[in-house]
Amino acid sequence: MKYELNDNTLIIKELDCFDLSKSCSCGQAFRWHEKNDGSWVGMIKNNPVNVSRAGDELMIRPCEESSIKDCIVYFDLERDYKAMERLISDDPRLNICLPCAEGIKGRRLYPPVFARTHRCIPCRCLDWQSDEGALF
């Protein structure tokens, strides 16, 4: 995995074994919403972000230099999920789960901050239900 910060967008390259849609809609993901363009909006720590995938690149915006590590840690991008899938595939009881879970990344969630994040969503004009008037 390589990454670069370009025009307030974190671009993470050479990703494999990562399905953005499955990862943002799985039972471990909370308050992530898919937009009409296929990108996802949600919160990483106290920051609203828009996350999209194109080929082997993951784009997270807005992102500042100080938030890069938070994004990588949140999506658990440094873990070798291919190796984990190989181990699971060797177990006849667990390998039947792989087709449903392939590409899902676990979350390394931060402590809940419901009081602050609940108040910051309306004041940042994030409209999760439609694309009209949304920040992203």
Describe it for me?
26% of the residues lie in helices and 22% in strands. Strand 4 and strand 5 form a beta hairpin. It starts with a strand and ends in a 13-residue tail after the last helix. It has a six-stranded antiparallel β-sheet. The longest helix has 10 residues, at 114-123. The chain is an alpha+beta fold. The chain contains five helices and six strands; from the N terminus they run E-E-H-E-E-E-E-H-H-H-H.
Shape: globular
- Taking the alpha carbons of the first and last residues, their distance comes to 26 Å
Structural class: alpha+beta
Q: Give a quick account of the main beta sheet: strands, pairing sense, barrel closure.
A: 6 strands, antiparallel
Mean pLDDT: 76
Compute the CA-based radius of gyration.
Answer: 16 Å
* Order of secondary-structure elements: EEHEEEEHHHH
Low-confidence stretches: 109-136
